[in-house]
Amino acid sequence: MRDAKLPIDDRGLAYGDGLFETVLVRDGQPLLWDYHMARLDEGVERLSLPRPDFTAFDALPAQCGPGLQVLKLMLTRGSGGRGYRPPEPGELRWRWTASPFQPSPERWFEGVAVRCCELRLGIQPRLAGIKHLARLENVLARQEWQDDSIAEGLLCDSHGDLVEATTMNLIWLRRGRLETPLLDRSGVRGTLLSALDDAVELHWVREDLDTLLEADAAWLLNSVQGVWPIRRLDDACGNPLKQWPPAVDCAIQRIAHRRLGYPLNPGD
Amino acid sequence: MRDAKLPIDDRGLAYGDGLFETVLVRDGQPLLWDYHMARLDEGVERLSLPRPDFTAFDALPAQCGPGLQVLKLMLTRGSGGRGYRPPEPGELRWRWTASPFQPSPERWFEGVAVRCCELRLGIQPRLAGIKHLARLENVLARQEWQDDSIAEGLLCDSHGDLVEATTMNLIWLRRGRLETPLLDRSGVRGTLLSALDDAVELHWVREDLDTLLEADAAWLLNSVQGVWPIRRLDDACGNPLKQWPPAVDCAIQRIAHRRLGYPLNPGD
């Protein structure tokens, strides 16, 4: 439903008891739609939410309006239950919004500066990978810097292993292999990451920050922004840790941008 | 504000970016009010929320209606910001509701059966202790049992150390000492627990489940339900782990119930 308000006893608000997806839509056509619906489906299973009628969501992209839009779809367990205990039978509640979107071409082609966050993500295999509404760790991490020249913050888990950035996934090239952090204990499995995993040989690894410092190139990516090469990495105090030369091998970006309809070269 | 609806772009809904308190109110008089306001204050600091006018909250209990009520007060970071990044300056949004409440005298005086949850709480010192809105772990834990004869589920963290129950804190008696789990890495510091900590000598410990099995008595407690002695503890499969005799020493309950205006004996 497109409705600007929600009852305050909604369990999404009360406990973060729900899921969301943010989908890039171009002229009414959603990008990576099947991947978004698959992740939503997995989230519904993992949280034991009442099953939505997924076909009802198929009609939303066409209603987003012209040009580049971000469709945000939110599912919650609705109202009711006794405290944390879900109501039986539950009723799913869903809402959506669309907002015009402008990507950042300079980040695609000049790369970005990122920093490490001090916050460590908690280990929670039951919630890892899915895009649930309880994202307060990400909010705290994003509060760690105000400097607009820093595009993103990298997050490790409480064991010190690399996970993701606050809103993006992370891939690096090391010894000729494309590696990305396992997302089985924390983090969100991005839909663009899943699409790339189906297109190229990605190695899922459990590694700490030192591994990233050995990488020959590194990228941040999500289904809305596309792929940003990392140009510089700072520590949590803002001191430079590593610089990468621009554009070592952007096959990853070319594959991703073809999927998203984004340009492959600065002039496109 | 007493308003039944909230804008769907509220950050409480989007990310769990907010706090709540559930306060026992008897005939318009709040119980443990200073402890609730102190925890809220700490939460505001920890999340760097815009500071509310705390004096405005003082008028709420009187508006809850007669008899025993639970006042639920919710604070969120309002709308806006760019994704996880909070808006600057932010504007706090708050809502409240009151619901009639009936406690469970049989749980006070006959004790309760509880089970261990399989879910392990993530370690997150930045969020530990405060009552934030991102409580999806508690919802998942509460889904682990449907049997109404089980009153609560005990939670350990990802290191295997005891933390709390899904909605209550935990105190046990061991070798003549009252012990309770440290809440510096996960869990919520209950207001009744804080009040007891000011009244008796509580030892804050980092211990696993085996320690609880050595205890001579154990209790669950919160500011709404009061104190429930644990009569039986089952494992996560429902097999009995331990039974305790009824009413070893209920000084803890007497002190707590005096604070809450609850009876000290079955006949009261």
Automatic annotation (TrEMBL), chains A, B:
<dbReference type="GO" id="GO:0030170">
    <property type="term" value="F:pyridoxal phosphate binding"/>
</dbReference>
<comment type="pathway">
    <text>Cofactor biosynthesis; tetrahydrofolate biosynthesis; 4-aminobenzoate from chorismate: step 2/2.</text>
</comment>
<keyword id="KW-0456">Lyase</keyword>
<dbReference type="GO" id="GO:0008696">
    <property type="term" value="F:4-amino-4-deoxychorismate lyase activity"/>
</dbReference>
<dbReference type="InterPro" id="IPR017824">
    <property type="entry name" value="Aminodeoxychorismate_lyase_IV"/>
</dbReference>
<comment type="similarity">
    <text>Belongs to the class-IV pyridoxal-phosphate-dependent aminotransferase family.</text>
</comment>
<protein>
    <recommendedName>
        <fullName>Aminodeoxychorismate lyase</fullName>
        <ecNumber>4.1.3.38</ecNumber>
    </recommendedName>
</protein>
<dbReference type="GO" id="GO:0008153">
    <property type="term" value="P:4-aminobenzoate biosynthetic process"/>
</dbReference>
<dbReference type="Pfam" id="PF01063">
    <property type="entry name" value="Aminotran_4"/>
</dbReference>
<dbReference type="InterPro" id="IPR001544">
    <property type="entry name" value="Aminotrans_IV"/>
</dbReference>
<dbReference type="InterPro" id="IPR036038">
    <property type="entry name" value="Aminotransferase-like"/>
</dbReference>
<dbReference type="InterPro" id="IPR043132">
    <property type="entry name" value="BCAT-like_C"/>
</dbReference>
<dbReference type="GO" id="GO:0046656">
    <property type="term" value="P:folic acid biosynthetic process"/>
</dbReference>
<comment type="subunit">
    <text>Homodimer.</text>
</comment>
<dbReference type="InterPro" id="IPR050571">
    <property type="entry name" value="Class-IV_PLP-Dep_Aminotrnsfr"/>
</dbReference>
<dbReference type="GO" id="GO:0005829">
    <property type="term" value="C:cytosol"/>
</dbReference>
<keyword id="KW-0289">Folate biosynthesis</keyword>
<dbReference type="InterPro" id="IPR043131">
    <property type="entry name" value="BCAT-like_N"/>
</dbReference>
<keyword id="KW-0663">Pyridoxal phosphate</keyword>
